[in-house]
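Filed under: proteins

Residues; backbone shape codes:
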Amino acid sequence: MSTGSAAPARAFSLQGPDLAFAVTFALGLAAWLVSFVFGAVAAWRALLASFLFFTPLAGGMAVWPAVVQASKGRWAGDSERLALLGLSFAPASLAILVVLWLAADSFAPWPGRTFVQGWWLDADFLFARDVLALALFWGSAWLYLDRRRRRGGAVAGPACIITYACVFSLLGFDLVMALTPDWYSSLFGGYFFVSGLYAGVAAWALLVARAPDPDPDRLHDLGKLTVALSLLTTYCLYSQLLPIWYENLPYETGFVARRMHVQPFSGVGAALCAVVYLGPLLLLLTARVKRRPDLLGGVCGLILLGLWLERWWLVVPSLPGGPVFGLADVGAGLALLGLFGFGVLRLDRLLPDLPVPRGEQP
């Protein structure tokens, strides 16, 4: 690998205008700020929902190369560099979480109230541990990138994977489940981090499909991995429902009932079954679809849109302000999309090619 100042040629290099994402961010931010006229709660919960989509997605992208390396996979090749571009969202995700912390009195159910969980749901303690945990994950992901660039990562990779699972389980418990303080599920953290990995692999596949001259075999592998994660996420969702039914736990039905039997959430849930949970199995069933960049990219884009809506479906029924999908949700989504896309393009220009992982060092 050249050590000169010239940037090496890359088989996978994104082409895209930074200006488009900057404008997307500006328009989204303006729309989100205007939405405060219609209610602060709706604006803050929209930001929370989009944060809970983009942060696990970016973290999931960053952790997938570690998963491939830990499982002794060699199929990813130089496309794993695109997955590591998810690291670009680290500063934005931490900043947004701090902003949500500062605004907790405006939307969260915890400030000024005492629940059976006691000090665990103290708002300042909750956000402080989440900020520290998220910073720990991003630190582990950057450490893995540093080791990976030196042909290492045999220890840093598994550590990053474990940190991702623990941190995003905690975020799922704290920022989704705890919005309904009287509802508990020990399985919810697992669902949340697995769905983040699902979003991460779908975004990775979309980036590879959009890159110049993608390898059909690599697209095929990513398509199969996307189907596998869709089934695993569906299993984790179903595992929430099965114990409630067979153990006859009516006190656990409140969280589920609002999303399955109250409009518009029940309609959204049905759409999610078609787009996010079961649909990918049919849409990506054939090798032809998985090997064509336009078809695979289109399906993965649809999956990501569905997962963004799924975060809205998880957050909004638990907070006041009415079940209206409106300007705040669109604005927050566009603003974070602009931040994410701009960061990916910038890091793409800075991140060098990665060496082929052989003879790894810790």
